[in-house]
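REVIEWER CHECKLIST
Item 1: Sequence provided? yes
Item 2: Single chain? yes
Item 3: Sequence as submitted:
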Amino acid sequence: SSGINAEYGVVKQRIFSAVVVTILSPLYLLLWGTQHAAHHTTQHAAQHSLALWIGLRDPLSAVFPLLLVILLFLGPLCQHLVLRESIFSDYDGCKDVLIFRNLIVAPITEEVVFRGCLAPLVFSALGWNITVATLPLFFGVAHIHHACGLYRQGQPLLRIAASLLLQTCFTSAFGCFSTLAFLTTGSVFGPIVCHMFCNCMGLPDIASIPHTGYPKSIWFAHVLGLGGFLLLTPNILTCDRFSSIYCTL
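Item 4: Structure as written out by the authors:
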């Protein structure tokens, strides 16, 4: 019991640290980043407010990236439906502090820091394509600490390495999409709600597909969702659809 309480204490400390970093990051962007971005783009960029750089605008634009992510998870959603499981089933028995961290604190703090504050700096120095390609690597590496938890649980090193590789690839791939959504919409709200949804769904449970009773249909839903996501994303997340400041610089 004392060990569990100590772990929850660590979670609360991490929540506090994440909130502090999230509060300080915009200040850094205000003091240095905005001037740097304006210097490396155009004089017109200097007229944009800090709120616009971070993406605190147009919450309704979040609908488009969220629908794309829901399409991506078509297979897992069908899987939950067939098994009559809630999409929150992974959090059954979890303490409220863990649910609050994973579904509220982590999506908001990470997207504000990585997309709202770090993306403008990388974008100003390296441009659109490199920002979308490289920023997610930092986002993926930031999740490596989860391997420490598995190590403390006594998991085999091979299993930890495989889990770490899978999670890093998944978070980096999501980071690419999230960065693209942020730059095209100019809003951080899309990445936040998509992050919340992904944390709610978790990684696809491929191993349980044969036990659903409809494995071919579930596999088809997975392939259809992935294919539709890859096909529609470059056609929906375009500068022509949104008034993002990053599309004008």
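Item 5: Key structural point noted by reviewer: The two ends are 55 Å apart (CA to CA).
Item 6: Recommendation: ____
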